[in-house]
Amino acid sequence: MSLRTSRRGIARASAIGFTLVLTLVPLLAPPPGGLAMASQVEALPSGAQRVVSVGGSITEILYALGEEDRLVARDSTSLYPQEALSLPDVGYMRALSPEGVLSVNPDGILALEGSGPPEAIQVLEKASVPMVVIPERFDSQGIVDKITAVGQAIGEPEKAEAFAAKVAGDLDAAKKITAGVEDRKKVLFILSLQGGKILASGTGSAANGIIELAGGENAIIGYSGYKQLTDEAVIEAQPDVVLMMDREGDLSIDENELFSNPAIAATPAGMNRQVIRMDGLYLLGFGPRTAAAVKDLAVRLYGDEITN
């Protein structure tokens, strides 16, 4: 059974919500291992035209550069633009099947830092498929560096540098709109609320990065990555706003469920019923659309307080 066939059952059973969770997971702090173990090159072979993209932001960058014709497959976190969905899906970026990747006969792989598992990478190494690992960092410079790294990898450095400069300018402009805000909102990013247990973002994550870019403060700073919080920790954090991915189906968290949680109810966010929902990849992708996401989040946090 091919990887693509095996994924169909998962997709049918879990629908949009499950896909959004898979989209988020690689946007946490990248774990050790994965492609860091692979033999890395700075660029794919000259003229590489059968490229597999592993990482939603990498796929977005290739489309933004007008280099989408090189793509022969993408991973399951690559949900934008819509046209990318017509490409074969080689699986989730941290659970790649080497058979799925090799089935499209690639002459190169562009993969976001943290992809894997190591066993899959070892098989791809033995198959002598050139691989470029694209660094991931959750700040403005990280996005610029990602774009230039992709351009270098595909032999289009000048095109990528021009686009990176535009994106850098857009990010600077987006950050400036909250420059005059004095009372910074404390934001609690909640990944899930399974069984009433709050799984929330600390530092070192994409959620932390986007909150800071939009002029907010992460309400949780005592740890890195994502962890379950005790009720006491939530109440002590006193967030002004809850931020969540906009989901559908079984993984959605409605407002009654959220604000009836005793810990949330004891915070300013709960008392004032303040919640912001945004598309997961748009909010946390740290790619070409991040400047727009920063503006959207800032407007929803501060409204008339910001400078347009």
Automatic annotation (TrEMBL):
Show the Pfam families listed in the entry: Peripla_BP_2
CDD domains, per the entry: HutB
Give residue ranges for domain Fe/B12 periplasmic-binding.
Answer: 50-305
Q: Which domain of life is it from?
A: Bacteria
The record's section on InterPro entries has: ABC_Transporter_SBP, ABC_transptr_periplasmic_BD
This chain belongs to which protein, by name?
Hemin ABC transporter substrate-binding protein
Q: What is the lineage of its organism?
A: Bacteria, Pseudomonadati, Pseudomonadota, Alphaproteobacteria, Hyphomicrobiales
